[in-house]
């Protein structure tokens, strides 16, 4: 077999291993999903009317805020789900299975590739679940064309890939699963200080740069524009640049850590 065929075969084996782990131990994924689902329900039903009036004017109702908040919740779901990748990688490293893999005749990169592809698949499945809940409580995207839906899906996959590689790097650098979970918490916290819940203009001036110059805000604005037909402006290019940059950074970090001989 060629080197490429071996890499594909071993990566598929590692992907199957990670998906089996996720199926046998679903509690981690479900716990990580709880945060975006609870925030969606909390902001829509508790703050929805007030937030709608603040964003769209006094004549707005809760449906206006549902339309505004769902794109941010979907991207928060990705940030929440990929924490599982950091925990899984740290667990493999601390329990010695990676050291065992190093002694076997398998493609070394397949271990990380299996984690990454498995995490991206779980992220998209989680987004679909949260999106279903959003539709059930009133979210509608009637103005999006088929091309815009395809672009939105591509953005979600690319952003999930970027955050997954960063999470894998965090897992490689952590001594245990608990430390990996803690180090990956910014992936949940950053959407809270973005344009996910309120417009950037509504944020205090001294805090606006933190909300604006981070990866979640342009990605949220791009997804919101694709799903609702609002103006995207330069956010599309910024979201693409952030995604590619984070993917490259996470890949280099993860592979360099993995190639380093264990102490």
From TrEMBL:
Domain of life, per lineage: Bacteria
InterPro entries: ABC2_TM, ABC2_TM_bact-type, ABC_2_transport, Nod_factor_ABC_transporter
Signal sequence annotation: none
Protein's UniProt keywords contain Cell inner membrane: no
Coiled-coil segments on the chain, per record: none
TM spans (from-to): 25-45, 65-90, 111-137, 149-168, 180-200, 236-254
Record keyword Hydrolase present: no
Alphabetic keyword roster: Antibiotic resistance, Cell membrane, Membrane, Transmembrane, Transmembrane helix, Transport
Location in the cell: Cell membrane; Membrane
Pfam family, any one: ABC2_membrane
Domain ABC transmembrane type-2: 27-261
Membrane topology category: Multi-pass membrane protein
Family affiliation: Belongs to the ABC-2 integral membrane protein family.
Protein name, entry field: Transport permease protein
